[in-house]
Amino acid sequence: MKNLIELRKKLEAKKNEMRSLILQAQGEKRGFTEEEETNYSAMEAEQRSLEDEIKMEERAQALAMSGGSTHRTPDDPEHEGEFRDFGELFMTYRTNPSDPRLQEYRDLAMSSNVTGGIFVPPQYSQQMLEISREQAIVRPRAMVIPADSTMPDANITMPVLDQGSGSNMYGGVEVEWIGEGAEKPKTDVKFKELTLTPHEVAGHIVVTDKLLRNAPAINGVINRLFGAAIAAAEDNAFLYGDGNAKPKGALVSDAAKVVARKTANVITYVDIVAMLSKAKLGGSLVWTASQSVLPQLLTMKDEAGNLIYQPNIAAQIGGALLGYPIKFTENSPTLGTAGDLALLDLGYYVIKDGAGIFIQSSDAPLFTQNKTIVKAFWNVDGKPWVNGPFKLANGYEVSPFVRLGIPTA
Length: 409
Hints:
33% of the residues lie in helices and 19% in strands. It is α+β, with helices and mostly antiparallel strands. It holds the Pfam family Phage_capsid.
């Protein structure tokens, strides 16, 4: 198989060449000449070709590691440079750090200023992230911008619809019917900039050295534990983060709307209807709730005496509330606290992935106990895609992020 390091270096060099051409034209305050336009188009084609080659190589390696036709077997010399799975990779990293097969993953870690650890290649980290997606609320529903292959932690700036004063839910776009030959209407689209900067986040677990000597156990246990931890940590930040060296939470952003509940420490049918009336319809709404609200939800009735929430308890608590799916999460505040119930369209939330996942381990602090600390860390940022609630054409205000508050004083 081809060396991904070399392919990525070629891609980075090509992008730098393209940036230099752009900067030269900008420095001279002009556009491209005809020759420069031709050269830039050719470089774009080379860039796309390299990106496709990298993707194919990553898929080929993933197939080799996941049991496909190119999967390595002990007596298969053709694939002697590959690891069978994450467990074998990690055991080699722990017991034989000079193994030449690790060099590529060390180089990738060092290119992201990570010392003493290794980059977890996509065919393994994907398994961990798949587990987290099963349990995550925000990531599977949000707009996710993947890490760039050459500058994974670089800032990215994108336009965000400005829902400020004088704007409508389309960011200021006005549509008018015009007669033949009449002057076309002017539009005043209001955009602001949204900058995402991947922040480092880390988690660690303590495992016994006996477990570390069992490669299949490592593959299952570490993937499962870190996958669940990643999902919980990201959801908490994407929903409630303060934006200070971490993502900005959707439910605590300027775009969120708070609906005052009718009675303290109680969720009523009136509260739920009020929340739905303030949510931006037309997208993919989902409720989030604390498990502590279940006794009230399961016994709640509408004005006609009908139960409004009847999940299939024999299968799994979940189901739908007023037609929209509901997810119970440990990150939601307990009953009676603002945010114990929320309604969100997470298609209006943007996640920017950065470098990682990386793995480090050390037995120094717990050497006499025959235990090892394993740390996983990655980089990510997230922010709402809008900077305020939407104002409909009739002046009514709604939001993609609605949470239940406390009673009005």
